[in-house]
Amino acid sequence: MQIDIATLFPDMCEAVLSESIVGRARKAGHITVNCHNIRDYTLDKHRRVDDVPYGGGRGMVMQADPIYRCWEAICKDRTEKPHAIYLSPKGAVLTQKRAMELSKMNELFLLCGHYEGIDQRVLDEIIDEEISIGDYVLTGGELPALVLTDTIARMCPGVLPESVCFEEESHYGGLLEYPHYTRPEIWHDTTVPPVLLSGHHKNIADWRFAQSLEVTKEKRPDLYEDYIDKI
Ligand code: 4GS
User: Fold this and answer.
1) Alpha carbon of residue 162 to chain centroid
2) Which of 2, 72, 118, 136 is most buried, taking the most CB atoms under 10 A from its CB?
3) pTM above the 0.85 mark?
4) CATH 1.10.1270.20: which residues of the chain?
5) How far apart are CA 51 and CA 194, in angstroms?
6) CA–CA gap between residue 130 and residue 108 (Å, rounded)
7) CA-based torsion, 189, 192, 195, 199: positive or negative
8) pLDDT band at 119; cut points 50, 70, 90
9) C-alpha 85 to ligand 1 mean position (Å)
10) Which helix (H) or strand (E) segment is 122 a member of?
11) Average pLDDT, the chain
12) How far apart are the first and last CA of the chain?
């Protein structure tokens, strides 16, 4: 998987992507993530990348050309055109299912917007898909691009030690996760559920599945109904 992120804040993206599991996966070569500064592609002598909106109104709009030239530069050394995603509240809300599908693609281009938005013409020309990370408004598309990169990265081969790591977690398979416990056995007068100390693998698996059902029914009745309808 190769992900190219076009942003006005490459250092912000790089800082997040250099740490923890994603940072390790990049160093080990399991995934390639490059952050590109859109400002490097402006032809303006003052390095401007935005201007006032036609038709008036508040704020600034990101210009088409620097974004297009950034996209062109990325495409030039690729064999196939990357699947281009614009992170925006107008997009379809991100789900585990879509993230899983995207993790099977070879090359992704993630475009981060700022200010009031981006000149529609460049979006119409290069963008294949718009994705939102939720129904709320942020100051920029960087955090959404990082969220998307993180969830995709963990499903790429070699990134997590075993595939069970992501298959057992919340939203994978449509249920929320069962609760976890670790040492000590008694903490603040509360003991660990005895079945977890039994060493009986079948009983433990059954208990965890029952907990998953219960937690999902309680916290996310919408997911629970979907799950029940499918079985
Ligand atoms: C989101 C979101 C977002 C919208 C970017 C206002 C700056 C901002 N992007 N999911 N302009 N939610 N973007 O809020 O993806």
Assistant:
1) 20
2) 118
3) yes
4) 168-230
5) 64
6) 13
7) negative
8) very high
9) 13
10) helix 120-126
11) 96
12) 33
Q: What superfamily would CATH give domain 168-230?
A: tRNA(m1g37)methyltransferase, domain 2 (1.10.1270.20)
Residue 1 has what pLDDT?
97
Residue 114 CB–ligand 1 contact under 6 Å: yes
Q: Where do the CATH 3.40.1280.10 domains begin and end in the chain?
A: 2-153
The third-level CATH classification (topology) of the domain covering 2-153 is: Alpha/beta knot (3.40.1280)
Q: In this predicted model, what pLDDT tens digit does every residue of 34-84 receive, in sequence order? A: 999 999 999 999 999 999 999 999 999 999 999 999 999 999 988 899 999
CA distance 231 to 226: 9
Task: Tell me how far the alpha carbon of residue 6 lies from the centroid of ligand 1, in angstroms.
Answer: 15
Query: Which residue among 88, 93, 94 has the greatest number of ligand 1 atoms within 8 angstroms of its CB, and so is best to mutate?
Result: 88
Please tell me the distance between residue 148's alpha carbon and the centre of ligand 1 in angstroms. 13
